[in-house]
Amino acid sequence: MTVATLARAQEHLRAIGGAPRPAGSEADLAARQYAARVLGTSGFTTREEPFQYSAFPGRYGTPLIGAAGVGMVASAAHLAARGGTAFALVILVAGAVVLGVLGRWLARAGVLELPLLRAEGVNLVATRGGTAPAVWLVAHTDSKSQPVPQALRAAGITGLALTWAAAIVLAIAQLAGVPGVAPFAVWAGLAVVAVVTGLPVMLSIVGADSDGALDNASGVAAVLVAAERLPPELPVGVLLTTAEELGLAGARAWALSTGAAPNGRAAARRSAPATGQVALNCDGVDDVGMLTGMHSGAGHDRVLDALSAAAAARGLPYRSMRLVPGILTDSVALADAGWATVTLSRGTLATLRRVHTRRDSLDRLAGTGIPDAAAILADTARRLATQEAR
């Protein structure tokens, strides 16, 4: 990491991460315009791609599904503790299916199709040269706040899901006549646990009180530095989405515009263009912690291999892992649409405790981790673009 590279990274970070940037706000527009100027000086041709979406899933989907989940587990516990175990099991199983299907639809198709709270967003697309990009560098410009930090929300979602599963197992055990099951005490305990774990999920209400320096001015800065490092002839494009914090709307709209359906069906993926299906997303680059490649879905092995090789070549500590339940990034939307994609991040558990809170500000982020992340992004893009050209 050179002094000049760090200074450039910090310049980008300060230009973008000094104020909240709710999707569609003037601050979000300013971040997009700044990025367009930076990319323009590096020879990229930029264009804005408007899209329409529903803000309802991103704003209210998680709290409403969390509330429904708590209500179902608590109702089932009340019934089972009083002898209605069979009915309780029906509620738990049917509720899991209904909420699972509804949640999946809201997250994938609903965010673009639902007629409630319609809004307009704008993605920034940058390319250079006459060749279609073989690899895309992706980050989101918008930010949000919530009453609970990301770490607590993720823990709540995981805890509520495990409590629900435990309730189903307990109901089956009771119906099977397994000895030693204490109906009232155990069911009462599960109901309490459901409320406790579900509370942070229900409180995941979107606000605009976080500057989003870490999430995701740092990721945008890393992408900009990486783009500046890449040779002009390399077929790499840049996609800066908005409304990532509202159901990944920008990335889902982009996936749809490239030919892949928002529900990620195999038939739609087969009809997608042959180019532009590889993406390196960057979301959250702290000053401390290990560089991490986070993935979901399938088809990401070659991206993970390229990231690992790039980190090893520079002697940087690196790990790969599946995305933690309750944490969403643009790569989830792209993976759903059949892209080979991974999200590069850097941080610790303490990092997650800052995300989506007022503590996510430039006061707590110097940007010293951005140059390494940018170098890994650039090196990985070179490797993947070379592979795609073969």
Structure notes:
The chain is built from 13 helices and eight strands. It has helices at 3-16, 26-41, 56-81, 85-113, 150-175, 183-202, 213-229, 249-257, 266-270, 301-313, 330-336, 349-354, 370-389; strands spanning 45-54, 118-127, 135-140, 236-241, 278-285, 290-295, 318-322, 340-347. Helix 3 runs antiparallel to helix 4, helix 4 (85-113) runs antiparallel to helix 5 and helix 8 (249-257) packs parallel to helix 11 (330-336). It is elongated and about 70 Å long. The model is unreliable at 260-275 (pLDDT under 50).
List the defining traits of the structure above.
single chain, 390 residues, alpha/beta, eight-stranded mixed beta sheet, 13 helices, 8 strands
Helix % is: 40-55%
Question: Low-confidence parts lasting 5 or more residues at pLDDT below 50?
Answer: 260-275
Name the shape in a single word: elongated
Order of helices and strands: HHEHHEEHHHEHHEEHEHEHH
Strand content: 15-25%
Number of helical stretches of at least 4 residues: 13
Secondary structure tally: strands: 8
The strands making up the biggest β-sheet line up spatially as 1-2-4-3-5-8-6-7
What is the averaged pLDDT score? 92
Sheet of most strands: 8 strands, mixed
Which structural category do the helix and sheet elements fall into?
alpha/beta
Rg over CA atoms, rounded to whole Å, is: 22 Å
Termini distance?
31 Å
